[in-house]
Structures are given as C-alpha cells and as structure tokens.
Amino acid sequence: MGDFQTFQTAWCPGCGNFGILSSLKSTLEELGKDPHEVLLVGGIGQAAKTPQYLSGNSFCGLHGRSLPAAAAAKIANEKLTVIVNTGDGDSYGEGGNHFLHNIRRNVDITHFIHDNQIYGLTKGQASPTTAEGQITGVQVTGSINSPLNPILLAIAAGAGFVARAFSGDREHLKQIMKEAISYKGYAMVDILQPCVTYNKINTFAYYKNRVYQLEADYDPTDRVEAMKRAMEFDEKIPIGVLYKEEKEDFHKKNIVLAGKEPLLDQKTDRKVIQSLIQEFV
Amino acid sequence: MYNILVGGAAGQGIDTTAANLEMLLKKAGYYVFTMRDFMSRVRGGHNFSIIRFGNEPIFSHSAKLDGIIALDDDTVEIHNKELNKDGFILCDTKLKTENEKAIKLNMDSMAKELGNPKVSGSIAIGAVLKLFGIGLGHVDETMKHLVKEAYLEMNVKAVRIGYESVDTRFRFLEGTTGDYMILSGSKAVGLGALAAGVKFYSAYPMSPSTAVMEFLASKSVEAGIVVEQAEDEIAGINMAIGASFAGARAMTGTSGGGFCLKVEALGLSGIAEIPLVVIDVQRPGPATGLPTRTEQSDLKFVISAAQGEFPRMVIALRNHTDAFYQTIRAFDLAERYQIPVIVLSDQYLGDSTATVEPYDLSDIQVAEPCGEEYKEGEYLRYRITEDGISPRLIPGKTKNLVSADSDEHDERGFIIESSEERIQMMDKRMRKLDKLMEELQEPEFIGEESFDTLLVGWGSTYGPIREAVGVLNEKEPGKYGALIFGDVFPLPKKLLIEKATQAKQLINIEQNATGQLGGLIREQTGIVFDRSILKYDGRQISGEEIVERIQQGGVR
C-alpha cells in the first residue's frame, strides 16, 4: 500500500475541503494505490488546489478546463488513475460545456466536485448552484437565477456513475470515493461542503440536518427513481450512489485504444508513414 | 505551362473533376499546382479550381487561362476575360453561351448513355487531355485509384469519348517528373504530424483547418492516433495539453476564430512548459470574416496571443515541402524546449495541391521526453537550469512525481508568490529563447545577388513572390531579390539586416491590410519598408499581380 502525504493548505479553518482531502487520502491508501500511479487534476478555485496538497502526479490547469485535460491524460495513459478535484464554479459554470460532453465521452476518470454553492476564491459570488434569493456581494438583491441541479443533469445526460456525498460524513464519503474510482467510466460525485467564510446559508449544520444515506435496498440502476431522488434537494437531501450503469468507456469504444497497449507506448511505425507517402505518388 | 480552370456551382462536381484531372496530369509526368477558390455554401454560388501544369517546377497559380471547363454559364461570364486569345471554353451544349471560344459537347447526354450523369466530368477530362496532345497510356491504371470499381469502366469509356470528340490544339509538353507526390498543404501538414509521431489530435471543426483533422482521422487506425473532435475549441487545446503532459505527442488545429478561443491555454502550455503544436490555417477575419478564403492576418495575433510573457515559436509554412518538414520540426522544437509551437498555414496553401518530391524520412528526428528516473536527490519538474530547460518526465512512467501548474510555481511545481522565486522562474523560462535563437532558420533568398530592390514576404506568398522575381529579373536583369520568411517568431535577423543594407528599395508583400511582418521587422530591427504590396480581399496574390503592382509603383 502506498503512502500518501498531505501538505499545508491555504484553506480557511473549518473548510469542508479538509474532510474531502482526508477521505481522499484514506481512499487512495485503502485502494492500494501508489502516488506515482495517480494523477490529481484541478482547475482553478479553492477545491482545485487539492492536487497541491496531496502526493501524486499533479496537473493544475485552467479555470473550468480540468475535465478535458484529465480525460486526455487518461486517453494517453490508461494506467494512470485520474482524479479531478474542483469546485462547483469550475465544473458547472466556466466548465459547464466540458461537464456535459465528458459525460458523453465517458473516459474512465473520477470527478469530485466540491460543491459549496458559492464562489470561494473570488470571495463570495453566486455559483451555478447558489440558491435563488441568496444575497452576495454581486447578487446584491439576491440571486435571481434558478440553481442548477447537477445530479439530475448528469443522470439525464447519460452519466454512468452519479453520486452525492457530504464532506461532514467522512466514512461515507470514503466509501463513495472508492466506488467512484473503481467504476470503469466517468464517475461524478457532487460533494456538499460548507464554505465557512462566504456561505452563511449552506452551513455545516444546514447540510448535517438535511442529508440522509440512501436506504440499503435502494436500487441505483433505476434511472427514473434516481432522477426522483436527485430532485430531493430541500428539507431532505439523499447521499450515496444515486445512479450506476455499466457502460462501455472511451477506451473500449475507441478502435485505436481498445485492447491495445497505452497510447503513449504505441510507437508510430515508419513503414506505415512510408506507405502513406506512397499513396500520394 | 498551361492553366485550366474548372468552374461551376457548389455541388456540380468541380472538386472531383479537378482532382481526377490533376492526378492524370501528374501521372503524365507534369508538375502540377491547383488552387481552389470556393464560397462558404454547400450548394450553388460560384466555385472554381485552376489547375496549372507544365514541365518545369510550379510554385503558384496564375489567372491567365488556356482553357475553361465551364459547368455553368456564370463560369463563362466571370472568367472568359482571363482567357488567352487561343484559349477554349469546354462546356455542355445546354449552356447558353455564344462565346466564339466555346467547344460545346453533348457531355450530359453522352454521360447518361454511359449510365451515370456524373461521368460527364470524365468526358471533359478526356477532351482536355486531347487538346494538349497528352496520350491515354496511363489513364486506365490511374483511374483505378480515382474511382470506385463499379464506376470504373464507364469513367474510362467517358475519358475516351471526350478524347475522340476534339482535336489537339496546344504544343505538347514532355512530362519530366516521374514519381512525384501530389497533395494539399493541409494533408502535407497531417502527414508531417504523423511522421513526427503524433498520437493525439483534438480540435473543433473550422474551415479551412478541418482538412488537417479529416486527413488525420482518415489515417487514425492505420497510424495509431486518437483524433478527438472536441466539444469546443477550448476543450480541443486543453485536451492536447493534457495528452502531451501524460506523454502522448499532441497537436491541435484551428483557424483564426478558433485560435482566439484557445489563447488562454496557449499560456498554460507556456507556463506549465508542456510541449504543444498548434496549426492555425488562416482565413480572413475579424470574427467570422470570409470563412473559405485566404489571408495572412493572424501573425501579430499569434506572436502575442495570451496574457503574460512566455517563450513560443511561430513557423509560417511557405509551400508543400515546408508543410511536411516544418510540421515535424515544430514537434521536435516543442519537445526540446517544452514550449508551444504555432504553425501558420492559410487557406491558399492548405487547400491547394502541388507536386513535390517524395518526402524523405531518413533524416527525421523528433526528441523524446527525458525519461530517466531520479534515484538520487529530489526530482524537480521545474528545476532551475542554465539553459532554462528542466527535466520533463512522464507521469506514471517512473516513481518520481510529475507536476504541472498554471500558477506561478517553485521548482517542484507548487504555487508560490515570492518575488525571488517568481523572477527565477520567469528568467528560467525566458532563457530557453537564447538557445532557440541560435537554431532559427534564416529566410530563403531568391533572385539575383546583385539586386537593388528587395521583396520581403512570409508563408504562402513564397510561390507568387518567387515567380514574380523570376519575371522581374527577366525584364530588368539583376535588379530583384526576395527574402521569404518561414521562421517568423522569434524573428531571424541576420540575413535580413545583411540584405536590407544592400537594398535601395524595400517592399513587403503580404496578404493583410496593415503589413504585419513589415511592422514586426520595423519593431525588431528598425528597418523601414519603402513600399508595401498588400492584399486582403481573401484571394491569393499571383506572381503576375505582384509584377504588375511593382511596375505600377506606389501602392499602400
């Protein structure tokens, strides 16, 4: 079993990110991963700094663009365990288009969205998941846009692994993380986490009082039921794997990759190039 | 040299007729150059290709036509003034034209009799071969590669029917090239990328750059390359960067508008020091501009695109030879310096086809990442080194941990904000330019060493300028020279300063409205051009147009 170190962070004391970082560390250790086998990817934001705080290969790219970079890194080398940690703004706002299309692409990567329903790094503006009516420094009379339901959206868009977790329940979060990382395909986990500095509405207590674990007999293969549960986001918020479906991932679907050695090890054959040149003669 | 225009509305089969004719001419041993001019529409309008062929090397197009294959009356109306006095207009009897140069054949009805109206193009091809006295010896074999088996026999018959329908009119030229290749600039770029070992190409379709992606996709299984159509331009470049970081040689491609969207990620490649090749097949802007036409107006944009400062390299492709070899070189430079390398092509070069000597793979070398595991001491991805180049490892390939960071970072790749480390890291990156400057390729000099007028251009105006210099020196022996830049940024200055010192008159020739290379040269060397020949109507300047504009004098 590999040993994953954590490093000093720039997060606020009491930030929900700590729970996520700690669960991720134990998850990777319990899965028997070695840091050099793991690629941690982030965009920009407080959550996106996660790759800086945990040992592993790391790629801290651009705001909103973590998914395309992560998917392509996995396409290049399927032996890497690729995990994206980034926020609700990065995933659903700036990177919204990539979120949709990476569901369709279904590359075998894991996406942990640290969803605190607010922008942290830019100091407290509405995010795509901020509740209607919530007052911020920019939405001064309250946000008038309806919040996005990322779980419902992901299930509707055809994602094969959709889960919700709560940073305050580390043991449960760890179980979800394990299942997500082990899933063959794109796995998204929307992790509710309090932002202690900029979101005074969705606090630790707010989530603590609302979340409940999906029942033991809940059937995650029932897509309609999953959508119903995904719509529960008020007095009761279900956590757990809401939807799971076996699907062919990108590597299975792509003829150049399926059953072959990793792309980066496939060396171009000079003879093929020579014959391509000959085609033009 | 002879010039034949094939024109008609979009959807009438101009491309097929031109492609088949140019291949038959190549197989007859001629040098061929075909330029393609088309509108941004799927049906209707007016499109044309001009096929130039002869038994001496050809570098560009010409609008002095020896023949027109007219598929509609518009073609006759638009182009008959470009026809030489003994030129012909080959068309179907259904056309209304009463032009005295028209050779009207019952092509459509003969084609129907053969079983498919589409073979009328082959009838026209047969007629053209005969008009220029070219035999049919190679036709059967060549047609096998051009048309599907089910249509082969009727097409071969069609060529013969066309051949029998006319008499030879032009002086026969003996073909001399033998086993040359014929391909478009964009295919040559794609072939270069494959030869360089590209493993991943992600892009969003955009004219005229799509031809590169289509070619790579068509060879993806054979060559073992993943071609991914991204959801947008931004994903296209970020995917290429992610793949390159993870160890697959990667490239993205686009045209100006798409390049605008990719700009932030260009800086990511710069600061995170991830090798990246970007092909920009230029078209006239701004915004949507003229989607299917040509321009060289992205130079100043791509040399400064993205906020902040970082080393980059920009190579402009001059011709179909450059398109292959310089694309390979772009991958090598990107890997060795861990920088973004931008390759500038344009619609004219990308879509035109030309005969070239078969590409030679024997001297091709493209660098690999470092690869060696650090067993003693800490592996530092961004280690401060004398030449600014740090050891690039591939994540997962060794026990060492590899980082990439778009934030300013320390040697390990962790976010920093200290003044000392920022300066060290900026200096480290910028130092890479010192070494890069030493291996820049000087512009190609064409013309007479005794020149007093120096023409300066870059990229795809190479062919037209080269041709113009030849004509001008025939008219005024020893007076003209030209420098055509391939490497444009960083700007190689040595030969430029030397030649500019000798010149009594300096003229920059560019396909843009502001003289962007002229401006860059002035900024970097203080050399000021006396005159500019600028064209920005979306159509490539021809050699004869350059000659005309030089002789006219003062042009903005």
TrEMBL record, chain A:
Q: Which cofactor does it need?
A: Mg(2+); thiamine diphosphate; [4Fe-4S] cluster
Residues annotated as transmembrane: none
Q: Which Gene3D superfamilies match?
A: 3.40.50.970
Q: Which domain of life is it from?
A: Bacteria
Q: Which residues form the Pyruvate ferredoxin oxidoreductase beta subunit C-terminal domain?
A: 195-253
Looking up Pfam families in the UniProt record yields: PFO_beta_C, TPP_enzyme_C
- Annotated ranges, domain Thiamine pyrophosphate enzyme TPP-binding: 48-191
Keyword line: Iron, Iron-sulfur, Magnesium, Metal-binding, Oxidoreductase, Thiamine pyrophosphate
Quick one: a GO biological-process term for this protein?
cellular respiration
* CDD domains xrefs: TPP_OGFOR
- Residue ranges annotated as coiled coil are none
GO molecular function term, any single one: oxidoreductase activity, acting on the aldehyde or oxo group of donors, iron-sulfur protein as acceptor
Record-given protein name:
2-oxoglutarate ferredoxin oxidoreductase subunit beta
Q: Which organism is it from?
A: Anaerosporobacter mobilis DSM 15930
Automatic annotation (TrEMBL), chain B:
The alphabetized UniProt keywords are:
Oxidoreductase
Describe the location of the Pyruvate flavodoxin/ferredoxin oxidoreductase pyrimidine binding domain by residue ranges: 192-427
Q: Which residues form the Pyruvate/ketoisovalerate oxidoreductase catalytic domain?
A: 10-164
**CDD domains to which the protein is assigned, alphabetical:** TPP_PYR_PFOR_IOR-alpha_like
What is any one GO biological process for this UniProt entry?
response to oxidative stress
Top-level taxon in the UniProt lineage: Bacteria
| Gene3D superfamilies associated with the record | 3.40.50.920, 3.40.50.970, Pyruvate-ferredoxin oxidoreductase, PFOR, domain III (3.40.920.10)
Q: Name one GO molecular function term.
A: oxidoreductase activity, acting on the aldehyde or oxo group of donors
UniProt xrefs under Pfam families? POR, POR_N
| Entry protein name | 2-oxoglutarate ferredoxin oxidoreductase subunit alpha
